[in-house]
Every structure is written in structure tokens, then in C-alpha cells.
Design a protein that fits this description.
Layout: E1 2-4, E2 10-13, E3 22-26, E4 31-35, E5 46-49, E6 55-58, E7 67-70, E8 77-79, H1 86-97, E9 112-115, E10 121-125, E11 129-134, E12 140-146, E13 158-163, E14 166-170, E15 185-189, E16 196-199
Length: 207
């Protein structure tokens, strides 16, 4: 899991096979510096730099439903017991247990997560259900329903924040379909009282 800190240095945690290692690439010395290890081993972690330069990491193979926060002040990790990933884990496992066609790989552990203008973490995929996560104290989670009333899981799809509070979700794979790759695209606007999800023009190619 990779994130960029405020000073431009690169923060790196976890990896394959699952491990707890954390390091930072120091742009002054041009070298990697070892940091405190995470409490849980993580492969495919989602890692985000928060507005206060702390680093949130979550939803990773090997870590179950746990999330953690690295403090830029104390240089230590804190378990976020309130920001549980259990509903994401349950939904991913349910999707993987129902795969029946195409011999596709199982849904992977990368979550579509971005820091919203309100300072919270918004999760828009790849499962159908979306969530808000808070990183204050021991953390918190709020489930807010499915994209567009039941959009497919976006296995191997992508999500990017292209403007302040605006996310573009593209493509993905639905192994229950004869042609699993999708050309679908949608936007999520996080600047209002509630997320606004809109389908937009499809891509020229399935991806």
C-alpha cells in the first residue's frame, strides 16, 4: 500500500506475501527508512494520507476486518477498532462464493477509497455497497447503500478522484456475465450533504 506524505516522501506498508513492514522513502537522503510495523500483516492494502498527514490503511488480505492509523506525530500505528471492514469482507466473500462463469479470478482486496472534503474516507467500491469511514479516536463506519440502486461489483475496475470531492469509477469485471469486462463509467460527487452518483458516457472499450 503506497501513499504520498505532505513533504513528498513515499509511504509504503504491507506487501505480498502478507507482512507488517512499513517504510518511507526519504526524498532528502534518497533512501528507504524503516518505520514501526503494523499490528496486522497486509497484502493488497488500501492506504491513504489523511489531512493531518496521518496514514490510514485498511481492507487487506491477511488483516481480516481490521484497519489502522499511522500517526505522523508519534510515528506509531493505532488500531481503529470502530472503523471495521467486516461488511466489505462479508460482501467480497459472498461475491467470490457465487462465481460460476469464465474461470475468473476471485475479487481482490483493493478497495476504492478516497479522502473527501469533509475529512472522512469514502469507499465507493469495488463491491456494490458504499461506506463512510471516520479516523478520529478509534474510528467509525457508516454504510450508505448501493451504487445506483444495485450496480454490479466492479472487480478489477478503477476509481480516481479527478477533482475536489469528485470520483470517476470505470470498467470492471463481472464474472457472471459471458462478456465480463465493462465499458461502464460513473461519477460520485461528495461535495453535498449526501453522495451523488451518476452514470456518465461509457468508455470506447470494455476494460
Amino acid at each position: 500500500g503506497i501513499a504520498q506524505m505532505e513533504d513528498g516522501s513515499i509511504f509504503n506498508s504491507g506487501g505480498n506475501p502478507e507482512n507488517q513492514k512499513t517504510s518511507r522513502f526519504d526524498i532528502e537522503s534518497m533512501s528507504w527508512v524503516s518505520l514501526y510495523e503494523m499490528s496486522y500483516p497486509r497484502c493488497y492494502p488500501t492506504t491513504l494520507t489523511m489531512p493531518d498527514n496521518d496514514v490510514f490503511t485498511a481492507f487487506a488480505k491477511g488483516a481480516g476486518n481490521t484497519s489502522e492509523l499511522y500517526s505522523d506525530a508519534s510515528k506509531e500505528w493505532r488500531n481503529m477498532t470502530g472503523a471495521t471492514m467486516q461488511s466489505l469482507v462479508d460482501e467480497q466473500n459472498q461475491i467470490n462464493s457465487s462465481l460460476a462463469y469464465n474461470g475468473s479470478s476471485t475479487m481482490q482486496w483493493y478497495a476504492f477509497m478516497h479522502v473527501a472534503p469533509n475529512g472522512r474516507v469514502f469507499q465507493s467500491g469495488p463491491m456494490q455497497t458504499m461506506h463512510w469511514f471516520d479516523t478520529a479516536g478509534q474510528g467509525d463506519v457508516e454504510q450508505i447503500g448501493a451504487r445506483l440502486g444495485g450496480d454490479q461489483a466492479r472487480m478489477f475496475g478503477s476509481a480516481v478522484m479527478y477533482d475536489i470531492g469528485k470520483i470517476l469509477i470505470t470498467g470492471g469485471n463481472d464474472p457472471s456475465q459471458e462478456e465480463p469486462s465493462s465499458d461502464k463509467a460513473m461519477t460520485v460527487d461528495l461535495n453535498g450533504a449526501a453522495p451523488v452518483i451518476q452514470e456518465t458516457m461509457p468508455m470506447l472499450h470494455n476494460r
